[in-house]
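Q: what sequence does this backbone want?
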């Protein structure tokens, strides 16, 4: 133990050291204060660049002819040019797939579709596909390119018959065939609904394939458990049951989304972006005509 006199001498001898370091306050990082201050602006710039790089994402663009091209777009560009919202992009984020359920959202200029691995933004003339390199998305891209480039008629069966009648050269039927073709042309499905149809068909096929795979694994497991009750067979059945519960939840999420639209006529109407654009254009022309007449 130090005597009071020795303790006072120790404190007096330490006083000059404290006073020599930055006015009595020890400098951080071992007194190398100038170095830490010089690196702060550069660190801030690096953080801004890193945050900007995170917001930029690669998208596969598919146009009406089935032609594809890669593009980069950040959240600001998507939200302002396509009329989607920031939360729409969060719903589509693959890293947050477990936090957000499946969804189909109608916006002013686009349809936002997030169904399992299919995450796309559909406009009146192109489709933006997120994560095009995903192995589950590749079959969907192939099907989408093939189907949207083909003429889709809302009324099936009549179009080939009309062409056949015209090819036979029957003069009496030609006029009727032309009338049918004109009617069918008016009933042609808009591009955005064709793309949405491919999304729904693809996700239904995907879930049906998962169901078939689960069913193929369940029957042998149940047969083994019936013939002999063992810890291995019980664990095997338990894992299949867990898979069944997860798959049922995924199917229920997709079904709830579809039923929500089917039960609301206005939501169904809002999906037709082409009709909304034509209606807005018509109103604008009428307003211009009224103003010019005055």
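A:
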């Amino acid at each position: 133990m130090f005597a009071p006199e020795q303790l006072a001498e120790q404190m007096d001898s330490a006083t000059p050291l404290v006073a020599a370091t930055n006015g009595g306050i020890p400098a951080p990082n071992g007194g190398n204060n100038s170095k830490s201050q010089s690196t702060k602006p550069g660190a801030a710039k690096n953080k801004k660049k890193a945050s900007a790089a995170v917001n930029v994402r690669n998208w596969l663009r598919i146009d009406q002819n089935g032609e594809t091209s890669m593009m980069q777009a950040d959240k600001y560009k998507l939200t302002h040019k396509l009329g989607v919202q920031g939360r729409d992009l969060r719903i589509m984020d693959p890293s947050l797939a477990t936090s957000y359920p499946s969804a189909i959202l109608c916006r002013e200029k686009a349809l936002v579709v997030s169904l399992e691995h299919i995450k796309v933004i559909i406009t009146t003339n192109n489709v933006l596909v997120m994560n095009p390199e995903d192995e589950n998305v590749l079959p969907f891209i192939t099907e989408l390119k093939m189907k949207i480039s083909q003429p889709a008629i809302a009324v099936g069966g009549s179009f080939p018959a009309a062409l056949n009648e015209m090819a036979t050269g029957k003069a009496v039927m030609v006029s009727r065939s032309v009338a049918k073709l004109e009617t069918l042309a008016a009933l042609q499905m808009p591009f955005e609904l064709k793309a949405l149809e491919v999304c729904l068909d693809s996700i239904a096929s995907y879930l049906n394939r998962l169901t078939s795979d689960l069913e193929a694994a369940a029957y042998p497991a149940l047969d083994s458990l019936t013939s002999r009750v063992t810890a291995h067979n019980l664990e095997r059945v338990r894992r299949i049951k867990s898979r069944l519960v997860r798959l049922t939840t995924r199917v229920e999420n997709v079904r709830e989304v579809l039923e929500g639209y089917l039960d609301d006529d206005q939501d169904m109407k809002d999906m037709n972006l082409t009709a909304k654009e034509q209606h807005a254009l018509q109103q604008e022309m009428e307003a211009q005509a009224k103003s010019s007449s005055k």
